[in-house]
Amino acid sequence: MTDHPVQFTKGDPETVLDPLSPDEQAALDAAGTDPAALRSVAAAHPTLLEAWARLAETAPDPVTSYAFARVGYHRGLDALRHAGWRGSGAVRAARVENLGFLHSLNALRRAATAIGEAEEAHRCELFLYQLDASWQDHLST
After folding, report:
1. Count of C-beta atoms within a 10 Å radius of residue 7
2. How far, in Å, CA of 92 to CA of 134, rounded?
3. Which pLDDT belongs to residue 12?
């Protein structure tokens, strides 16, 4: 009989999304917070979570913000699954690679609050705490 040691990881598994490509980063840097420029970036890079988050954060009204944030959130869930996330574990805000998703989720929380969708706002806040208990230290609330 051969020994087969079992290795355990400490704590929750952590998922880190892929970094932005140089082209994506340059497009975001050039767009800043200009809504028209951000729309062009999102159209050219539809999986770029930070573009959707910025669109949500700069939207002229809560319904538009909600729509942009929801796209970023769902695209983010796809990206997390692609990165190996299986529905639990840390997605830390201290990792710059994760900020597009976490900004989208936080924008969805704020927009849901603004349109009176209290249950969804609460679910988003709980999800943020489950992903990273210190999220408020890294994201504007």
Report:
1. 4
2. 8
3. 64
